[in-house]
Design a protein that fits this description.
This protein is α/β, with parallel strands linked by helices and about 290 residues long. The protein is built from 10 helices and 10 strands. The protein is about 35% helix and about 15% strand. Strands 2-1-5-10-9-6-7-8 form an 8-stranded parallel beta sheet, with helices on both faces. It has a two-stranded antiparallel ribbon with strand order 3-4.
Length: about 290
């Protein structure tokens, strides 16, 4: 049940993924979301017209840290017990989940619904949205990990919907013995989420839902449905296999045994709406 200590954070961060469309996606997601009873705060982010270089392995490092600082200030001023995060790229959940970890302590866990584990570092990848879960564990770039006062141990992290990790990701997951569930296990309701929550003594859970965990053939408002001339090839990159009902089912299973105190939804990329918006701007009487 929502109370006065809840907060809805709209954080249209795009620079962590180096894709301005994340901002439009977050704004549309905020419009689609049910009306809030709790306070709603939107975090200012970098202008989408700007270009940012790589600084010490992270693209736009200085600006990203400024934006994370803004989010942290808002969260601290509200001191919420529960948060929903309508995010741009996945890095949007760093400060909110860090706060919740500190708030709930040793009974706190994270369910990460994502095709990718987001445990890389600047050494492997320059876009910081792929670093966030590692940072929440206390692993990775020092400027990110220092934001996490109470790192979440690997035993209290579960990644659902992941498949075909790269070599670094596979080794990281194995070295930390992180519990995972493939898309097929999720769809067959054999993930073991409830058992994991009970075994680890998790009473308060944050859920990160990256929409790229969804099958882009069935839900097109995700990265891999991009089809314009500038779209990357995506060769060798794992693509989502879940459906919307699969995500509802796995979160419901978690909610049956733990209090969901955080819910972050990220990486909404409504390409059809973006393309239609851009087309309308070229038409007579719509043009400015």
């Amino acid at each position: 049940m929502k109370g006065n200590s809840d907060l809805r954070l709209i954080f249209p961060l795009w620079l962590g993924g180096n894709l301005p469309a994340y901002t439009f996606g977050a704004d549309m997601l905020a419009w689609l979301a049910p009306e809030a009873n709790e306070p709603v705060v939107k975090i200012d982010v970098a202008p989408v017209e700007e270009q940012y270089s790589i600084e010490k392995g992270i693209r736009g490092r200085t600006e990203i840290m400024r934006e994370l600082d803004r989010a942290r200030e808002v969260i601290r001023s509200h001191a919420p017990e529960r948060m929903t995060v309508i995010g741009g790229d996945c890095l949007s959940d760093l400060e909110p989940f860090s706060w919740l970890s500190q708030r709930w302590g040793d009974c706190f866990g994270i369910l990460w619904i994502d095709t990718h584990p987001d445990v890389m570092t600047p050494k492997e990848y320059e876009n910081a949205h792929a670093h966030v879960l590692g940072a929440l564990m206390g692993s990775g770039d020092p400027e990110l990990t220092q934001r996490v006062n109470q790192p979440v141990p690997a035993s209290r992290i579960f990644i659902a919907g992941i498949h075909s990790p790269n070599d670094y990701e596979r080794d990281f997951i194995a070295a930390h013995n992180i519990r995972i569930a493939s898309p097929e296990q999720v769809q067959l309701k054999q993930s073991g989420i409830a058992e994991w929550i009970k075994r680890e003594g998790i009473t308060h859970l944050a859920v990160h839902f990256d929409l790229d965990a969804l099958d882009y053939h069935k839900f097109r408002a995700v990265m891999f449905a991009r089809s314009d001339k500038d779209a990357p090839s995506w060769d060798g990159v794992a693509k989502g296999k879940l459906e919307l009902d699969d995500v509802v089912n796995i979160i419901s299973e978690a909610e049956s045994v733990a209090d969901i105190v955080g819910l972050g939804i990220t990486e909404h990329l409504p390409w059809d709406a973006i393309n239609l918006r851009d087309m309308l701007a070229k038409l007579p009487l719509f043009r400015n």
